[in-house]
Specification:
Number of helices: 1
Number of strands: 9
Strand order of the largest sheet: 5-6-7-8-3-2-9
Helix content: under 10%
Oligomer: single chain
Order of helices and strands: EEHEEEEEEE
Distance between the termini: 37 Å
Shape: globular
Strand content: 35-45%
Largest sheet: 7 strands, mixed
Length: about 110
């Protein structure tokens, strides 16, 4: 599977909501927010499964290896949040935002 995410990253973020924690099996989901118009699968689109994680959120993952690929909101269809760990080349910008810090795990280092 391969995708392309063209255009500038609007912002990169760590989301500490409990849905992201459970989906990623980690303290946070880390994302690059890009324009939906520049996001496309180059191969393997048929391997992507998408599910509704909330009334407005959709999460995409690889049905073969389980990699978390993106999160998108039906309320903001012009943007998509692509998981930082799947970007090639590796994202080298700053993580500028943290979401839902009220549920940030206490076991993280200060």
């Amino acid at each position: 599977m391969a995708y392309r995410a063209e255009g500038p990253v609007k912002h990169a973020s760590h989301c500490y909501c409990t849905m992201c924690q459970k989906q990623h099996g980690a303290a946070a989901g880390s994302y690059a927010n890009v324009a939906s118009a520049g996001f496309a699968f180059e191969r393997g689109a048929d391997l992507v499964t998408e599910y509704a994680s909330s009334d407005h959120g959709r999460r995409g993952f690889c049905s073969v290896c389980g990699s978390n690929l993106y999160w998108r909101s039906t309320q903001a269809p012009d943007r998509i949040a692509v998981t930082l760990g799947t970007l090639e080349p590796e994202f080298d910008g700053p993580v500028e935002r943290e979401w839902h810090t009220e549920t940030k795990p206490r076991w993280l280092p200060a």
